[in-house]
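Below: protein 1.
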Amino acid sequence: MTLAASERDIVFYDGDCGLCHGLVRFAVKRDDDGALAFAPLKGSTFAACVPEARRSTLPDSFVVLTCDGELLLRSAGAVRVLKRLPPPWPLAGSLLRLFPTSLRDVAYRAVARVRNELFARPTGACPVVPAHLRERFLP
């Protein structure tokens, strides 16, 4: 069963980051219900969904806009993505929530600082998205 677009969270990601691309591939592979849509942070969907004043204050790696209109940053966004995937991933999200957000975000920021050195940037060409997934990738 695929969820309606209004029931999806939108995962905004850094289109130039190998780690972010890997996380998107991870989520797409497991998200059988279509609970998540994906769009680059530098894309028109992000510009349309998040006001300019707010965009300038957000991290440049990973932001989740929930279907309820809430913006989740850093580890809170990662936890939300895990909780929207099928089992066992919601359990992993629940386990992460046992740690205080401040501690989770310290780890998140540490990885974010070195992500470009640790993970290869995606090649110049975008991967071909299968037809059944195209509606979940927004500009």
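Below: protein 2.
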Amino acid sequence: MGYVIAMAGKGGTGKTTVAALIAGIIKEKKIGSVLAIDADPNSNLGELLGIEVKETVGQILDEISAHPENISAGMPKDRFIELKVQSAVGEGPGVDLLTMGKPEGPGCYCYVNTVLRGIISKLIKDYDFIIIDNEAGLEHLSRRTIGFADALVVISDASGVGLKSARRIADLARELKIGVRNSFLLLNRANAHIDARRLEDPGLVYLGRLPFDTEIEKLSLNSEPLAKLKDSNPVLNNLKELGERIWKCN
């Protein structure tokens, strides 16, 4: 079973950027194969990884729900869904990407969601590291589509509102009894003058901080992949050091 790193945080904290950077760091370190799962309905992880998204899981579910007659004759329905999801995995240089998207149609997705759980469970066994960019509500964890994480990394800014939101996310993971082995708090776009006492929380281990960076901001605004970052980039180098604590917990 691969090592699952789940990212979470309120909107605007930069969790998708951090997810893409972590995927790139693991790839560069050559410590294992990487599958990135974009589980945020506002899907833009592919842009930051430089991987084209041809089809999302949500689109597949819509298609099957609206047109069940399109399933090949003689093929079991669950096998058809599995093949469609596998074909939706985008292959990049050292990182593969599965974009969940969000079903938009009016149909019932109970059966396909049940099948999807099994497919995802099989899929993540083929990779050494799985990085999940969740929306703040941890939808795909809470629905048990992906029901566990070796490391939950909650991204926050240094504001009181941001830190309160981060704690709520950690509390939600515990309330839902999601199997999280280690929970971390990572401050993004934060200056060096942080009062560590504000970050004390029994449910979150403070990982560290990442500074604001104009190079990353420029790439993000232009929808360019973060692989274009210079090796000297301070955020990249900070995250390389902090990341060792995330994936060495296994």
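The longest strand covers residues 179-188.
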